[in-house]
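quick q for whoever's on today - can somebody do inverse folding on this one?? i tried earlier but teh output was garbage lol. tokens:
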């Protein structure tokens, strides 16, 4: 770690400031800690849940289940970010992209972060108890997987894959369980597609931090793949397209859905163009582009049920 000097940002002094201002500052820092100011991450987690809910509900998901899942994804994503930053609070100051996070910059204390995490988990627990027993069991497994994710980057060479398994796609089997009370084969194929997709976009994201991660010893798929990173991302993109195609064939989907899969292929090609020189800013654009991948799949499913 000595190779990089952390630059800790400090919050402006608020001594003597009005109480309302001080409270506003705290709430702002808590919101940043929960990434409420960066909704793209929420969308990346929400899209697979919406795919699954629409398919499991044959185009008409249960409104109560839909509301619970949308709120649950928002809350669990926030909780995941908080516990990730808590565990990484002594690593983030050494990474250029993360050194200004509230915990890394010491604007929020570890105790405050833990309290916020507990409150978010309590809210998520309340939401999931509105659902059936099978979904509750799956939610408990998902929560354990989510909390364990930050530790995997210490020793597991593919933490981006584990992110997909634990966080990026676990809402898919939960959605099928909540909507139908069972876990059909097509649900697991869709889960595999979501897992691969998360590995794709998080590997692109990891390309931004590769140099810093190498310096501090953090594992990532971008480091593991080295100069084959674009090739491996391309392989995973093809795997996701194949998984989505299998989902469509299993359900007898037609042109609307197939058009959506083609649109995803075009977006993946654009991402490959963006990351061709591995420029961090371009890699960030490619990562952000994945929100449109999720949207394309959802619109394809929606149109298939409306007009298929």
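ok took a stab at it. sequence:
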């Amino acid at each position: 770690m000595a190779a990089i000097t952390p630059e800790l940002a400090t919050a402006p002094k608020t001594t003597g400031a009005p109480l309302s201002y001080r409270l506003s500052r705290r709430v702002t820092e808590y919101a940043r800690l929960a990434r409420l100011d960066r909704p793209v991450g929420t969308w990346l987690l929400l899209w697979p849940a919406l795919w699954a809910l629409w398919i499991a509900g044959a185009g008409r998901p249960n409104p109560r289940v839909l509301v619970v899942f949308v709120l649950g994804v928002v809350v669990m994503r926030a909780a995941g970010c908080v516990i990730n930053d808590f565990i990484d609070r002594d690593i983030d100051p050494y990474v250029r992209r993360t050194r200004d996070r509230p915990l890394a910059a010491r604007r929020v204390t570890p105790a405050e972060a833990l309290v916020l995490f507990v409150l978010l988990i309590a809210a998520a627990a309340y939401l999931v108890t509105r659902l059936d027993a099978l979904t509750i069991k799956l939610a408990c497994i998902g929560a354990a997987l989510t909390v364990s994710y930050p530790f995997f980057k210490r020793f597991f060479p593919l933490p981006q894959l584990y992110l997909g398994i634990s966080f990026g796609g676990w809402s898919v089997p939960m959605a099928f369980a909540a909507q139908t009370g069972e876990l059909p084969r097509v649900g697991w194929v869709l889960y595999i597609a979501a897992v691969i997709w998360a590995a794709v976009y998080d590997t692109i994201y990891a390309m931004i931090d590769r140099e810093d991660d190498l310096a501090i010893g953090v594992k990532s798929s971008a480091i593991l793949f080295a100069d084959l990173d674009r090739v491996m991302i391309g392989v995973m993109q093809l795997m996701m397209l194949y998984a989505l195609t299998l989902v469509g064939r299993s359900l007898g989907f037609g042109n609307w859905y197939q058009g959506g899969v083609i649109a995803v292929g075009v977006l993946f090609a654009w991402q490959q163009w963006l990351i061709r020189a591995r420029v961090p800013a371009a890699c960030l654009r490619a990562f952000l582009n994945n929100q449109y991948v999720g949207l394309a799949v959802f619109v394809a499913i929606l149109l298939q049920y409306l007009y298929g």
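fwiw Residues 24 and 48 are 34 Å apart (CA to CA). also The chain has one domain: 25-307. so keep that in mind when u check it
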